[in-house]
Amino acid sequence: MKRYDLIVIGAGPAGLSAAIEAAKCGMKPVVFDENARPGGQLFKQIHKFFGSKEHKAKIRGFKIGEDLLKEAEEYGVEVVLNATVIGLYPEKEITVRIGDIVKHFKGDYILIATGASENMVTFKGWTKPGVIGAGAAQTMMNLHHVMPGERVLMLGTGNVGLVVSYQLLQAGCEVAALVDAAPRIGGYGVHAAKVARCGVPFYLSHTIVEAEGEEAVSGVTIAQVDEKFQFIPGTEKHFDVDTICVAVGLSPMSQLLKQAGCQMADLPGGYVPVCDEFGKTSIDGIYAAGDVSGIEEASSAMIEGRISGVVIAADAGYLSEDEKQQKCDELEKALGGLRQGMFAPKNRGKKLETTEEGIRLSESLLTKGYIADDEISRYPGFVKKAGVHPVMECTQNIPCNPCQDACPKGCISIGENITSLPVVVADKECIGCGMCVASCSGQAIFLVDETYEEGYASITMPYEFLPLPEKGDVGTALDRSGKEICQAQVVDVRSTKAFDHTNLLTIKVPKDMADKARFYRR
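Now predict its structure.
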């Protein structure tokens, strides 16, 4: 039986981060993963991450995955793929199926970073071909470059449902609607807004009645539900679709920890091991990190993994107590930054009415996916100035500040609190470089110039669809709700390496549309 200093189960963001940190300290870890390639969910995530520089903000998930793998190779982390761990025992022994052979390994320390699996909801016809998880749709699109369907209905408006809906649009699919039994959108408002302005409707307090079709999905019927989640007769709505995507949450894959005899807790976020702040379970030498110990973003999982890697290295004698404390303090500060704001764990399930600044939240954003015209002016990022200037439609306290760092002239300020709403600095002059637009992970920043031409304004917006429009093209401007409002002419298209595939599209619209036009349709 082969023995390792540290055995990590799961080569996702948490597992790789833990192994890297332990290897930096001199340990010899091995990472087992059941998949054919390492990186976990990161390689399906083509969107830019939130947070700050230390959280990999404005970097796309797959690029973060590439960097992690490069770092793991640099520090000599051994990664064994197509290796399914089928047993974990209190003595820190594991059994692994590699191909057709079951092998036994023993570790001085074990870290479980198996992540989470998609939840499913049952409805009439839910087993038909064409009903898939949102994660499966991401895998098809972003790993295998296959369209999941032509016309899709998304069930679920958490971040996964919102992000995958946008990626479906990018892949060329038509998204018929987003549906959720909850009365409010569950994910970030900026994610909802970029879907809504593409013309996709939201149906809150609705859910699926039936997936229709003989051999595969050919349509779907939804209906409104009451406060007890019972269908309201007469509210049925039908959509012709060939695919139904389900994004109704994740469940921690904690079976190995339970098998080992770790103390477990049945919490609202799932069945998870009882851990301390370092990921230590009730069994000495067995740790957990990432979604297996509670569902959060990948940024949090990576930091959790690094904390566990540091603590394991210290427990094994590779770090002094002072070194451990210094590293953990830095990592915990970074993790604490991600656990602030409206979507912090402490606020889950709460019906918040105002921002941290005391500004009333947009009810339209929470129920329809877009900020109403009579609501947007209450937020500090929405300003009117002579000449070109940023307009930031960021209206929720999300831990994110790349826009502040991106502006070379200091036109944007968030301050020390990473969850504060961005403001436009009055005495700073915007040069129209567009770095703030490109850096915004929520695609919520626009450059507006109401004095572009006599009677016309220009609007520079983020644009991540192909084929790109060309200068001189004439199309249609859409407002925040996705409604067509006026003719728009493309006056500039900018694509540079610094923008990282977020193209800047500048359109010319009538001056009275400057505060409304937020998307361009070819």
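The chain has a mean pLDDT of 96.
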